[in-house]
Amino acid sequence: MANYKFEWLNGGAEIINPTITINPDNISIFPSNMTIDVDILLTTPNGTSFGVRLFDIPVENLNYDVGTLQTRVLSKLENFKV
Question: What's the domain range around 39?
Answer without folding.
Answer: 3-80
